[in-house]
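Hey, quick one: can you model this chain's 3D structure?
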Amino acid sequence: MAQGLISKLMSLFDGNRSVARVAEDPVLTAELLLLFRMILADGEVSEAELATLRRICRESFGIEEASMDDVVDYLRTYGYETDTAQSLAMFRRLDHDRKQMLAQHLAEMAKADHQLARQEVQLLARAMKLLDIRPDEISPKSA
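Sure thing. Here's the predicted structure for all 143 residues.
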């Protein structure tokens, strides 16, 4: 069983540089996991949310559409090891601009389906408080 998992991971790393980059960067992994948690916060996954995630991954992290399925598989395999608090704690050490970018990405994810659920607002508020980001620091186009 363990050998099968190791073989699967090796094939992911060998065949997909994006997966290897995510696996080698715990901050990027934590950010992607937090974005996924925002998608799941309201209990529904919409195509608009997935499209927003794909755009953010492409524009901000250089993860192309063709790599997304493998990246998601990697995160599903290892995502359970990092909870939201651990992810946010990792970001506290980052510079302010990177924290601001994370908050902006979370706001984009929350509003992607044009409905702000209470759980999404709570997750965003908690993240912004822990990141020490004020609401006025998120650009109007994405908040």
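One thing worth noting: Residues 8 and 122 are 36 Å apart (CA to CA).
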